[in-house]
């Protein structure tokens, strides 16, 4: 019966979507056609009249006093994390924005990072812009390809056409995996999304001490220190660059307003932060996650960000009670939370430096600031036991507790890619159920947000409880500036904006909600909001890698009257089946309308590169030049595949050490290099095991062909392999890789030739370990 309903709704919703797509809702065409010359052309300049070109600034488009715009977007942040929304972590910068404007306690995201970011930038639902999941898990369906279409231009592109200077600092996770190399294409890099300048990283997360830095389109190595001379940290670095860019922009062209998108890699894993910040939180979380939830809930009620009649949702059965844990586990888990709290506080501090600079420039009064505390709920991807290295989660390789205990003093440092346990993520999402990935419940989608604009918003510290979503940011900004999304951009007809401007809430705390319908879907988890009701169907538990088998079309739906039940604590599904049936029909109608279908609950299987375009598909042989860097999405896939790596080199008398080939680094990867005159192959199994194969003798000098032959036991995940080393076809060493990386080698590091960027694959050499001989080429052959 339900399938018949779905087919019917699919037809009508698809028909409606076509009508909406073909119906223009704005007359503007951008970029504008060239205006005809209105001067006079004579035979010489003496009998001609020139027309002086106009500056591309808002005033010349009839826009007076256009505001500067700052978006601060925190990564993987829960509703109950920041002090501004009742969390135990002080966040004075978010406090400042909220106290200088408005605090929104019913703002929503998509439950995952790049989908939220695509929705925010375009003003359309994430499936509408092909971003139904992170690009690394994309598939060949319209809602899931990871390719933001040309028919959904960003509000940044519109602002640029009206004279804004747009700069993006931090994370760009909206570039398809296969488009991240030096050959692009660059349509979905920052420049193609409307930004004049970019400084940050391209991907899901990065090492905060050794980030995979990109400036505009060029991959660069980070500086040794921050601008003030302190030890390097990525969040500080992007704050330094944002401040310098704003000051330079206003110094050179004060007529141009700026739009700064400050999109931190924090508080996404790895949780890395200067040690002096961690020391500030020592002992503050020894009471555990259950106590944290209770105390945070009390603070939330006191602040008024949660209604007095709200109920605190219970701990899921699959998460342990804090008091049930052995003492040594509580010790390491409390320390992980101390590191995370420090990471959060440090991030808020750096955002504060950016806002301080705006104030020092005299621009704060006319700057519209959105401080969005999360692109989804807090992350449970640390699993039940927390992680020293996030790559163990993505490759389903367990970490011994003894390793964690031995790392108590170094957690948060460059030695680890750490992540706290899932129960802390659940606590960060107080008072809601579930976490990141779970679009069906507010633990995955409800994020605190503050907006300030002193020149326009006269309220100070007030709360707004209208229901809103990330797609509402773009139309809010366009209304604030006084422009519309064009009907046509770059010659392409535009999809309607699906968001609703929030400006109606600025002056009226009691304004009636204008967003009355909003669907949610992520990884098979389904939700629908309509007129104060919410229906929710959870498909998979986020701290487990895969959901148990189930029927996506017949889910165990829950029903909540959230106008009376803020936290989704009281399931009314059994009491009101008619209402639930109505809500489920709404969900499938919206799913058909916005490219959500086909529903897909796969996780690991969708990470298979065969699902997406590939620069390497069909090729068996790859020859690369010296000093090239390739992201994993553009590199040959060597995981559990037999292959050879051959380097043609010239080694001078006296020898030459250095890296020949490597992929990944300290947290997973492998490399072939020369050290102390010997050929070495190192395989780092996500920091849990290290397999080293070394030549028995020093390699010869002169023109030499060095080779590593990797023969896998089987073409399947975790398969071991035999590795043999050769110099000029003579076998010089052999050994074993007992277990291999199954899914992903690295989240941010590259495949390097002739040097090693990022972090070392083994600790026996110093970066960048550039090969001191002559490297002519490296050839990879797949068997």
Second CATH tier, the architecture of the largest domain? 3-Layer(aba) Sandwich
Mean of all residue-level pLDDT scores: 94
Query: Domains counted in the coordinates: how many?
Result: 2
Fraction of residues in H or I helices: 10-25%
Strand content: 15-25%
- Large-scale geometry: globular
Rg calculated over all Cα atoms: 27 Å
Side-by-side strand order of the widest sheet? 8-7-6-5-9-2-10-11-3-12
Helical segment count:
14
Q: Could you give me the name of the CATH homologous superfamily of the largest domain?
A: Alkaline Phosphatase, subunit A
In whole angstroms, how far apart are the ends? 50 Å
Describe this protein's structure.
It is a single chain. Residues 1-25 have low confidence and may be disordered. This protein has two domains: 59-504, Alkaline Phosphatase, subunit A (3-Layer(aba) Sandwich); 616-782, Jelly Rolls (Sandwich), CATH 2.60.120.200. It is an alpha+beta fold and 783 residues long. The radius of gyration is 27 Å and the shape is globular. It contains 14 helices and 31 strands. Helix 1 crosses helix 14 (577-593) and helix 7 (288-303) runs parallel beside helix 11 (422-428). The strands form six sheets. Strands 8-7-6-5-9-2-10-11-3-12 form a ten-stranded mixed sheet, sandwiched between helices. Strand 16 (517-522) and strand 17 form a beta hairpin. The longest helix has 34 residues, at 327-360. Its EC number is 3.1.6.1. Residues 67-483 form the Sulfatase N-terminal domain. This is Arylsulfatase. It is an enzyme of class 3 (hydrolase). Belongs to the sulfatase family.
